[in-house]
Recover the amino acids of this structure.
């Protein structure tokens, strides 16, 4: 195909994956990022087997894995009873994928790894500190205006990808409805240097069911590679922000998992959580991907993964269209596939994950936990469970959506 240009707004993991995939597909790329550098604050860090396969296809999987931790197992615990309910083993997927494990790598590490790799491509321009402030599209392309320290820049491309996050300027400017709702409780993330695996016996990824206060607990390498744990808790509406991040809150919430050890908390973050999906993922030559198109609660680590899947599918779609493999219907297939799969897998799964952990009814709670125990005891049921939670089923399902 003639060399065409893709403009991408947002240099997070989704935007950078799209940029590298586009460069490898023969496109010129203009990557615009409002910030001066990639955001390194604690955010998503769980990459599932299906997503690792896509990172491998980009030729960076060894470097990527080296930036984080390999997690073969993940746990479900009954927190009040301090009982291990189920330990899921990704190794049962060994005949399904080359990567029967999860990689715990902070998302900014993937973005920075790719930014380094993009320097090798002469037709890729990365503009940090360039905030998209306007755009117009016509039959032949999209003109994008970006504002930075040196004033306003105009960039012209054949396509525009909005990977500019949950508050997407592009989605809002297109007046696309972000359908869904916001959870009444906020989520509190506490980052601790304490080694919970050594003291508690849990895996790198552990989910603690508790009708009073469920907990997600997972380990990341940290930028210093010394290791740290992130604990996620619900914060009820009546609790103020100040109360939620206080030392008393830290002691009360982490206490049941610490056995008297020092919390060693090095970071506290409180945020609102949404379950929303854009009503449209395509407007002419403009496409939404990642958080610009969908947001969800983080239980299960699916939002980031789905975003990488969006980017991969979208570049394949545009490349196919520009190579003459199909017409407008091919472009619309991106929305048909990605929106349907987000609703069917990511939204449903993350809501189910939250409901499972916070179940109040004791009979229903016992049933949910017993079912997890039964799944972990049956390799075939465990394989089916992990195929879904790791989005391998989602990738296969996509091929059946024409």
């Amino acid at each position: 195909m003639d060399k065409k240009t893709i403009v991408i707004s947002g240099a997070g993991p989704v935007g950078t994956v799209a940029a590298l995939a586009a460069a490898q597909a023969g496109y010129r790329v203009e990557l615009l990022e409002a910030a001066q550098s990639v955001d390194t604050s604690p955010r998503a860090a769980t990459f599932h087997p299906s997503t690792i396969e896509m990172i491998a296809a980009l030729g960076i999987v060894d470097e990527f894995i080296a930036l984080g931790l390999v997690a073969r197992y993940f746990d479900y615990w009954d927190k009040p009873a301090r009982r291990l309910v189920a330990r899921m083993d990704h190794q049962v997927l060994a005949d399904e994928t080359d990567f029967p494990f999860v990689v715990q790598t902070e998302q900014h590490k993937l973005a920075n790894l790719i930014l380094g790799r993009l320097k090798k491509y002469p037709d890729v321009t990365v503009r940090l500190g360039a905030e998209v402030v306007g755009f117009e599209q016509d039959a032949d392309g999209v003109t994008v205006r970006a504002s930075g320290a040196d004033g306003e820049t105009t960039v012209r491309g054949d396509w525009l990808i909005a990977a500019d996050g949950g508050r997407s300027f592009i989605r809002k400017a297109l007046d696309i409805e972000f359908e869904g709702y916001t959870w009444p409780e906020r989520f509190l993330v506490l980052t601790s240097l304490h080694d919970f695996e050594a003291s508690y016996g849990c895996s790198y990824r552990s989910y603690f069911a508790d009708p009073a206060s469920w907990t997600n607990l997972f380990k990341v390498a940290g930028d210093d590679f010394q290791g740290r744990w992130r604990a996620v808790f619900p914060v009820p509406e009546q609790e103020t922000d100040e109360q939620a991040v206080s030392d008393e809150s830290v002691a009360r919430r982490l206490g049941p998992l610490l056995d008297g050890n020092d919390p060693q908390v090095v970071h506290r973050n409180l945020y609102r959580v949404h379950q929303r999906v854009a009503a449209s993922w395509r407007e002419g030559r403009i496409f939404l991907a990642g958080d610009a198109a969908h947001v969800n609660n983080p239980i299960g680590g699916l939002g980031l993964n789905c975003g990488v899947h969006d980017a991969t599918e979208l570049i394949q779609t545009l490349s196919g269209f520009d190579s003459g493999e199909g017409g407008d219907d091919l472009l619309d297939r991106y929305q048909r596939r990605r929106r349907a799969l987000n609703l069917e897998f990511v939204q449903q799964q993350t809501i189910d994950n939250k409901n499972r952990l916070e179940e109040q009814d004791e009979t229903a709670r016992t049933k949910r936990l017993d079912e997890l125990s039964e799944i972990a005891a049956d390799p075939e049921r465990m394989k089916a469970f992990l195929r879904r939670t790791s989005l391998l089923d989602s990738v296969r399902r996509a091929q059946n959506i024409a």
